[in-house]
Amino acid sequence: DTAVSQTPKYLVTQMGNDKSIKCEQNLGHDTMYWYKQDSKKFLKIMFSYNNKELIINETVPNRFSPKSPDKAHLNLHINSLELGDSAVYFCASSQQSNQPQHFGDGTRLSIL
Amino acid sequence: GNSVTQMEGPVTLSEEAFLTINCTYTATGYPSLFWYVQYPGEGLQLLLKATKADDKGSNKGFEATYRKETTSFHLEKGSVQVSDSAVYFCALSDRGGADGLTFGKGTHLIIQP
What we know:
The complex is a heterodimer of chains A (112) and B (113). Chain A has no helices and eleven strands. Chain A has 112 residues and is mainly β. The mean pLDDT of chain A is 91. Chain B is mainly beta and 113 residues long. Chain B starts with a strand and ends with a strand. The mean pLDDT of chain B is 92. Chains A and B meet through strand 4, strand 5, strand 9 and strand 10 of A and strand 5, strand 6, strand 10 and strand 11 of B.
């Protein structure tokens, strides 16, 4: 019954590896997002997709590539992981882009 | 650009005390305003929202009023409980949400019994 679910919850990996985080929402929402929360709890938008189309791409390195196979899924793939990528990544969704967003529980990424 | 400024934490209060967490914003348009709460180890949950000037959002005893003249959206609760301990984020959505949510840095609230 989870509305927005992310997997995995924890991800520990070494520098230079490639990893993916999956996100699924069962709310029938049209818009999905990825946010990054740093060690000081600051949250920043990374990407936004509306009906599988990219509408926001903030100043995020090209190593980060979102993929939306359908409007219920927005996965985040990260190439060549760096120490600075360590953070909690949150997926969210909303019915429309100006509606309240529903968040997943986050994925804690730790780079060794 | 858009920005949200919240009071720095942590804020430590005794149970049943009155709570105010200040939030001010700058926006290029006419934003919607939100308060989100994050409990330890969990994602963010919408606490309340307001979409136009003088709107009051309320939920679980928390309230916030959209003040356009002072560009503020302060969060208040009359009597806090230990279970209110969490991190609270003020956020705005501008241009119809086209830019996603802009968050403040969060305020860590600690309620002591």
